[in-house]
Design brief:
The chain is an alpha+beta fold. Helices cover 57% and strands 14% of the residues. Helix 6 packs antiparallel against helix 7.
Length: 348
């Protein structure tokens, strides 16, 4: 263990990437010493230390990420889903769903309160170290303000010309002096404020989405012939999961190298999932209007909605057939395009 009386604990804590299992996680913290910055990685009963002397630090870089917004969308969607389930089902099950909705609402509020997420890196002459503890922008800014005076005291304050010269040296150092045999040298463009590098996202959320769309197609086909409340509950679960992963995919594909065909399919699937939800909810409400006695019990109304026979309702039959065809085409085409995209990434 480190001697806390010789170090100042800096704000922020986070988890280091990697690990063999979810239960074996490496927690990271930063401590400010007299002449160096100490990174502490704690994994269960073991600790690893990395020291970075202030005179060797060339840059501390932090940037905002979209992970916080993605978590807000996920927690918000899960809260809305369980609120909808609470409205549809009767007691005592609505107590469980409302409790789950409250839990996700608390997670949403906590994530909003913690502020935007960020990534931070420490750059020296020989390495670039990821700083997992600075995963929130407000903590990263606090740490930068605390470290700036001690680094300037160790290195001296640089003028604007020195900063530009040092930045050019760092960029030149990152470029290879000699291209490997059999390759063409590629000139790196200077970074500009108008352009952003494509992210390394490989389409994991999209794969889950397109597989869920195939499940939605199978559900729509089964729902034509099987009228049972279990099928209705399964449809609600599959449809809700598809909406969540469609939102996640739409967020993650922003700024990535994802081809336009997959991007278009993702947005089309999201819009149609929301449109179908509105249509089916309208049929559910219309069923309650046509049977006023069932309005007194949500469970009874849901049972009545589940017993609707598509062969006796041409509108419902058309909607299910169209949904089955659309989801099958979108899911199959999405998986094919995603496979080609991943193959091109491996080829590069």
């Amino acid at each position: 263990m480190i001697e806390t009386n010789t170090y100042t604990k800096l704000p922020g804590r986070g988890l280091k990437k990697g690990g063999t299992a979810l239960i074996v996680r490496t927690r990271a913290r930063l401590y400010m010493g007299k002449n160096h910055l100490l990174c502490v990685y704690n994994t269960g009963y073991t600790e690893d230390y990395k020291r970075f002397y202030y005179k060797d630090i060339q840059a501390l870089v932090t940037c905002r990420t979209s992970r916080g917004k993605t978590l807000n969308i996920v927690f918000g969607a899960l809260t809305a889903f369980h609120v909808l389930v609470t409205m549809l089902i009767g007691s005592p099950w609505n107590i469980i769903s409302s409790s789950i909705a409250g839990l996700f609402l608390l997670l949403l509020l906590a994530n909003i309160f913690r502020g935007p997420t960020s990534k931070a890196y420490l750059l020296t002459a020989v390495t670039m170290e990821d700083l997992p503890s600075l995963c929130r922008m407000k903590n990263a800014l606090k740490v930068l303000e605390l470290l700036r005076p001690v680094i300037e005291a160790a290195q001296g304050k640089l003028s604007k010309e020195d900063i530009q010269s040092r930045s050019s040296e760092i960029r030149m150092r990152e470029m290879p002096d000699k291209a490997p045999a059999g390759t063409r040298p590629v000139r790196r463009a200077a970074p500009s404020s108008d352009s952003k590098p494509a992210s390394s996202y490989n389409g994991t959320f999209h794969m889950v989405l397109f597989m869920l769309l195939l499940l939605c197609s199978a559900y729509s086909a089964v729902d034509v012939y099987v009228n049972h409340i279990a099928v209705t509950y399964a449809g609600i679960a599959i449809g809700s999961a598809a909406v969540i992963f469609a939102i996640l995919s739409a967020v993650r594909q922003y700024g990535s190298a994802m081809p336009g065909g997959i991007i278009g399919l993702t947005w089309s699937a999201l819009f149609y999932l929301l449109f179908e939800s509105v249509i089916l909810y309208g049929i559910y409400i219309f069923t309650g209007i046509m049977h006023p006695d069932a309005l007194r019990s949500r469970g009874k109304l849901l049972m009545l909605y589940s017993s609707l026979d598509p062969f006796e309702n041409m509108f419902l039959m058309g909607a299910l057939i169209f949904s089955a065809v659309f989801y099958f085409i979108a899911g199959s085409a999405g998986l094919i395009l995603l496979r080609k995209f991943r193959s091109s990434i491996r080829g590069v």
